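Hi all, long-time lurker, first post. I run a small reading group and we've been trying to get comfortable going from sequence to structure in the token notation. Rather than ask abstract questions, I figured I'd post a concrete chain and ask someone more experienced to write out its structure so we can walk through it together at our next meeting. Sequence below, copied exactly:
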Amino acid sequence: SLKRNIKHCDLKYFNLSHAFVDLGAFYELWSQTYLRQKIHPPLSAEGFKALYGHFSSDRTFQTICAYNVDGRLAAGVIFLVTGKTAYYWASALNNLYSASGINQFLLWEGLQVLSRNGVTDFDFVGADILSIASYKKKFGGDLVGHTRAWAIGSKRAHFVRSAKMLTKKLLGKNDKDFFG
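-- Answer (accepted) --
Happy to help. Here is the structure in token form:
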């Protein structure tokens, strides 16, 4: 369960940092999440680094990363903070650590840090990958669909229709409740 994973995450195997040492390593892990689902990452490595560089200069982006004992990135989260609202902008996890609970721990730690810093609203943002929607649902709150458009008959439109049907089954929601 989610609570068990957070509670039993053994931090002696990880060093936590609130700053990036290697944004390239984060991007690689982040893009692998999409590629495992046969979806292209929404940003190129250059676009990701440029966007992060733009927003991190004024602390709009806040990060928490976990490095293994060899100093390699094991997991990380990036929050986009504006006013009293934080958005779960990106998450990266090395699959070697998927059973460790580190990803859930980083998100939970991030929520606590954000709360201490005055954030009152948290938005998980997209749940466009079924496994990610399921993961985010475990933290509670409402899943709200965002409008997107694709050409009829495109592979992406077919994927969205398939994901929509699977999500209805998984979450027990009807189209209107989940997809707006």
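A couple of things your group might point at:
The longest helix spans residues 155-171.
The radius of gyration is 17 Å.
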